[in-house]
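hey team, just a heads up i'm posting the complex here instead of the shared drive bc the drive is being weird again. everything in one block, sequence lines first with there labels, then the predicted structure for the whole assembly after. its four chains so it's a bit long, scroll down
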Amino acid sequence: MARRAGLSAAAVTKAVRPLIEAGYLVEDVDEGARPALGRPANLVRVDGGRALFIGVKVTGDTAIGVLTDLCCRILVARHIPLSARDPKAVLGTAAELVRELLIEADGLGVRVAGLGMAVSGDVDRAEGVVRYSPFLEWRDVPLAELAAMATGLPVTVDNDVRALTVAEQWFGAGVGLSGFAVVTVGAGIGCGLVVHGKVVAGAHGVAGEIGHITVDPAGPRCHCGNRGCVEAIAGDDAIVRQVRAATGVQVADAVEAAGLAHDGVTGAREVYARAGDAIGRGIATVANLLGPERVIISGEGLAAYDLFADHIRDAFATAAFGSAARCDVRTRPLPFDEWARGAAATAIQSFIRSDAN
Amino acid sequence: MARRAGLSAAAVTKAVRPLIEAGYLVEDVDEGARPALGRPANLVRVDGGRALFIGVKVTGDTAIGVLTDLCCRILVARHIPLSARDPKAVLGTAAELVRELLIEADGLGVRVAGLGMAVSGDVDRAEGVVRYSPFLEWRDVPLAELAAMATGLPVTVDNDVRALTVAEQWFGAGVGLSGFAVVTVGAGIGCGLVVHGKVVAGAHGVAGEIGHITVDPAGPRCHCGNRGCVEAIAGDDAIVRQVRAATGVQVADAVEAAGLAHDGVTGAREVYARAGDAIGRGIATVANLLGPERVIISGEGLAAYDLFADHIRDAFATAAFGSAARCDVRTRPLPFDEWARGAAATAIQSFIRSDAN
DNA sequence: TTCTTTCATTGACAGTGGAAAATAAGGGCC
DNA sequence: GGCCCTTATTTTCCACTGTCAATGAAAGAA
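-- predicted structure starts here --
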């Protein structure tokens, strides 16, 4: 532990003791990892059950809530459909979700120490304000304040992809890395970036817009106004549209489109090939610019991952410059519960920071 | 000063006094900036003349050396043509350059406190080793050690674009910004990135490869093996090749190509328009991913900047997503002397760090 | 001259973290 | 079981950083 933190052993003792006394850390033994010689180390482990957290992720039609422990393990997950997208309705649904999860927490006899909320769009985490969410059609909603009043809990609010990235950084595939990217494939194509050990937020609230990198200036038009954005080729809507055009089958959604491709329909498979190519190029662009140690591909689109995996890999290998190709590109299934877990992770983060004072 | 550093006034006093006693800071007065009320502040200023530094930038055919003061102001600049590109020849030329500059420093009666060297390619700054420079055809050259033996000075070695970025961060248009990009246009298209206040180095030595972002998959082939990289459209070689093809005139270099365009030859102007478009898209990609506060466009290519300025601006405005377009894109002429100054900046940086111990 | 405002400095003090010594906990060897 | 040897952990100072509160200084205003 001292080696990892770059501190002396004495400093570790002094830092750890109060945490053990407060019950956040417990001593542990691992007979397996004992050295051949000398006194074995005293292992400590975070006692996850010492405090609970709630994370809420708001999508277009559902609010997803999870109850997690201090180690961000999901204990209970709940989904409630949204009746409307205005702040009042969303807040009411979220409060309902929190109430249910608080009852679960009561059953465990542990207090809930914080609530994290994740919303897509431009979110000012420090102020807890949703500056602009195109998806929910919100502008300057002081969500943290409103949610704190409604629930009585300390609230953190963050952009959903950033929250997911925080969860990966602290508890997922990004642990110990100083630079990595999380790429989410689904309705939109998003990206969370960690550089120098911190999540990139962008000067004006914009960062990680991998979905709007142009991969083909002659490609299909995107809702952002440009042509050939990654999202205009590989987003769910784009895939549905292209599969319809290529096969003539009026598929209703991405699941049906993937079904056609899985059935071996050539036109549909080609759409996924192009999509994989676009995503791979987008990832290569991130790798060429930032040199991350790892790229984690995730999102609902992962359900159809076998359809574009090879194309992502090929396009990445081709477009990555020099050693950037050595970046570890891997997938990780992260369903919506995991996004809510990301929200909880931001709450845990701010709980730890506040306690550290 | 206390407010800026987030420290108490008392801490500033204690930090500043030894620096004044050592002569690195001197008290100053600024009658202009006196407040209406109360005791005016004691201003301090870095005494640039207290220590000198040498920066050397190695290009394909020349070694450029500058002597700077502690404020990184260039006092003397010298150029020596390179006879060959192997480490021995380059080192000999660099040592010659350093000798000349040391004589100049002697004339000023101030000691030279460090030497910085900037080389293109994959450079391990911490170890002072040039891992791989395609341009010089070097592999694993321990340049810092060799140069230290040859000159007797403490040596820092860094990638040339990163060094230029450090100079901008400390002494140029990046002062006070936590995130910005330096884009260099010339023989190659390079990019130095600062995120969270630190220069991005990349996990495998690759970062900022804006030149190899694909802007047109159907575009001309690039030496990296792909098609339609920014560099394959807007690099000097690419421009010369395209101007020749478009006009039939066998221009010898980028200067002649720019001459044709300045004369109003349509084909040549169109080449610059396409180049500007490619650069603008590349910058937009950086802005979409990282949300920098500013982008500084520079490099030898700036000499022809009027030919693509509008196209860069237009392409950026179109391809930037949402508030990313609010990023401040500006130009700054940075001739090769400035790259050498960047090398000196890295030396100053490590001098300050070592002294702080 | 005296008051107000803003800076600068000082000295006491708390917190962090390091070095070195002391202590603890194994295993092997006699 | 005793006696090494090795590695971990803790304790006891001690240095350093930075804060707080008090004091002194410099300027303009009354």
